[in-house]
């Protein structure tokens, strides 16, 4: 075997072990923030699809949306209280601001605007605001 061949067998294990040592593991706070952001994103899209689009067609039934929101509520139950206590949480001021956004999102998920005459677009904006803030801190 050539000298280069021997060198390859020495360097390859070092590269593999170095790559494993550099892997990133999210903190409990980051995982919770990302999971909650995902739920808020799904809730916003469910609201959007349950209401008529530009052509007047709805893409989800009210029954489907109601069931989806029950699932979303279960997924985020307790997050507002748990998030600031999770390992790796940011400073108390930022945590408090995130909790307020999560509380607003949780209220929307608990009482989504599924009727045609309500201001569902504002609920989508608030869910997306909370989603974006949580994604920002989730790494």
Word description of this protein:
The chain is mostly helical. The chain is built from 6 helices and no strands. It has helices at 3-21, 28-50, 62-76, 79-82, 92-110, 120-137. Helix 2 runs antiparallel to helix 3 and helix 2 runs antiparallel to helix 6. Mean pLDDT is 89; it is low at 14-21.
Number of strands: 0
Strand content: under 5%
Task: Summarize the biggest pleated sheet.
Answer: none
Mean pLDDT: 89
Order of SSEs, N→C? HHHHHH
Radius of gyration: 22 Å
Which descriptor suits the 3D outline? elongated
How many individual helices? 6
First-last Cα distance: 46 Å
Provide the helix percentage: over 70%
Summarize the structure.
By secondary structure, the protein is mostly helical. The chain has 6 helices and no strands.
Which structural traits does this protein have?
single chain; 71% helix; 6 helices
């Amino acid at each position: 075997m050539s000298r280069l061949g021997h060198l390859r067998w020495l360097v390859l294990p070092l590269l593999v072990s170095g790559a494993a040592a550099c892997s990133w593991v999210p903190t409990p706070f980051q995982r919770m923030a990302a999971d909650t952001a995902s739920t808020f994103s799904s809730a916003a899209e469910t609201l959007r699809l349950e209401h008529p689009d530009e052509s007047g067609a709805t893409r989800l039934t009210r029954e489907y949306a109601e069931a989806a929101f029950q699932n979303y509520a279960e997924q985020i139950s307790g997050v507002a209280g748990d998030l600031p206590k999770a390992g790796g949480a940011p400073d108390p001021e930022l945590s408090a601001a995130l909790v307020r956004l999560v509380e607003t999102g949780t209220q929307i998920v608990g009482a989504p605007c599924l009727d045609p005459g309500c201001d569902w677009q504002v609920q989508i904006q608030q869910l997306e605001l909370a989603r974006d803030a949580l994604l920002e801190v989730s790494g």
